[in-house]
Design brief:
- With 283 residues, the protein is an alpha/beta fold.
- It has helices spanning 3-20, 29-32, 43-53, 71-76, 87-112, 122-125, 138-146, 169-176, 212-217, 234-245, 260-268, and strands at residues 22-27, 60-64, 117-119, 126-128, 133-135, 149-153, 155-159, 163-167, 182-189, 194-197, 204-207, 209-211, 220-222, 251-256, 275-278.
- It is built from 11 helices and 15 strands.
- The protein has an 8-stranded mixed beta sheet, sandwiched between helices. Strands 11-10-13 form a 3-stranded antiparallel beta sheet, with no helix packed on it.
- The longest helix has 26 residues, at 87-112.
- The protein binds Isopentenyl phosphate.
Length: 283
C-alpha cells in the first residue's frame, strides 16, 4: 500500500470523526427572557431561534440560560452562597418550578418547529463532590445517538460541601466538552461578540476571529453592559469558561441571538457578524 493511499485513508478517517462531532449551543437567558422582569419569556425571540435551530444539520445539545426564571429568586435567597437556613428551601422550590416552566417553553417551541428536543434535568445527573463532579451522562449520550436533541440548563446543583450552589449553563458546558466529542460551542447571547480595546483609538471593537493564543493574552475591553442581575456573572464568568472549553473543542462562536439571520450564516459556514475563537492546537 503506497504512502499516498494510507494518507488518504487517514484523512477520510479524520473527516469522518470530525463529522461525528457534535455542536453545543447555548441560548443565553438574556435572549429568551427579559432579565429585568421576573419570569418573563421573550416568546417571539424563542420562536425565531427555534426556526433557525430546526435547520441545524449537525447533532447538537442545546443548553438554555435561566434569565429571570432563575437568577431573580436565586439572588433573593442567596442560593449561590450555599445552604445557610431552611428558608432557602422555599427559594429552591420556586426556582425548580420556574425553571421547569422555562425548559418546557424552550422544548415545546423547538418540538413545534421540528426539533426532536428532549429535556434532561441537570441536577438529577450531576453532583458536586469535595474533589470534583460525579455525573451520569449515559442517558444524554444514548438520546443523542438515537436522534434526539438533548436540552439541558443551568440549575441548583447539590454539592457535598455547601449543600447546594448555582451551576451555570456555561459551567455545565465546561463539563460536557470533557465527556462528549464536541467540535463547536456556540454561545447565542444579546451581544455581538467579543469586544477588545483598540490600543490606538482606545475604542472597543468587535473582534471577528482570534486564536486561543490571542485569547489568552488579550485585555477584555467590553463584553456586556450589565450583568448585575446574574448570579453567575454571565459575561464576566464566561471568559474563564471559554478558556477552559477551548481546551476540548476546536471552536467557540459568540453570536447575537437578536439577529437570527447571523445564526443562519454560522450554520452555513459563511462570514457572520460575531466572534470565532479557534483552537489552533486542535486537529
Ligand atoms: O443562566 C443559572 O444558569 P445560567 C441557573 O446559565 C440558575 O447562568 C438556576 C440560576
Amino acid at each position: 500500500m503506497g504512502l499516498m493511499h494510507i494518507l488518504r485513508i487517514y484523512l477520510k478517517l479524520v473527516l469522518r470523526l470530525k463529522n461525528e462531532q457534535i455542536d453545543i449551543i447555548k441560548i443565553g437567558g438574556s435572549i429568551i427572557t427579559n432579565k429585568s422582569e421576573y419570569r418573563t419569556l421573550r416568546k417571539k425571540q424563542l420562536l425565531l431561534l427555534s426556526k433557525e435551530l430546526a435547520k441545524w444539520e449537525k447533532k447538537c445539545i442545546i443548553i438554555h440560560g435561566a434569565g429571570s426564571f432563575g437568577h431573580t429568586v436565586a439572588n433573593q435567597y442567596s442560593i449561590h452562597l450555599g445552604f445557610s437556613n431552611q428558608n432557602q428551601l422555599k427559594g429552591i422550590l420556586q426556582i425548580r418550578k420556574d425553571m421547569l416552566e422555562l425548559t418546557e417553553a424552550v422544548t415545546h417551541s423547538l418540538v413545534e418547529n421540528g426539533v426532536n428536543a428532549l429535556s434532561f434535568q441537570t441536577s438529577a445527573i450531576v453532583f458536586e463532590n469535595e474533589g470534583g463532579f460525579s455525573f451520569h451522562f449515559n442517558p444524554v449520550k444514548k438520546a443523542l445517538s438515537l436522534g434526539f436533541c438533548p436540552i439541558l440548563s443551568g440549575d441548583v446543583l447539590f454539592t457535598e460541601a455547601k449543600g447546594f450552589r448555582i451551576f451555570s449553563g456555561d459551567a455545565l458546558i465546561r463539563l460536557l466538552v470533557q465527556h462528549f466529542d464536541v467540535g463547536r460551542v456556540i454561545f447565542i447571547s444579546d451581544v455581538d461578540g467579543l469586544f477588545l480595546q483598540d490600543p490606538e483609538t482606545k475604542e472597543d471593537k468587535l473582534v471577528s476571529s482570534l486564536t486561543t493564543n490571542d485569547f489568552e493574552n488579550v485585555e477584555i475591553g467590553e463584553l456586556n453592559q450589565d450583568d448585575s442581575k446574574d448570579v453567575t456573572g454571565e459575561m464576566r464568568g464566561k471568559i474563564e469558561e471559554i478558556k477552559s472549553i477551548l481546551e476540548h473543542t476546536s471552536e467557540v462562536i459568540l453570536v447575537n441571538g437578536f439577529h437570527p439571520e447571523r445564526l443562519t450564516l454560522v450554520r452555513e459556514g459563511d462570514k457572520f457578524v460575531g466572534t470565532t475563537i479557534i483552537n489552533e492546537n486542535s486537529t
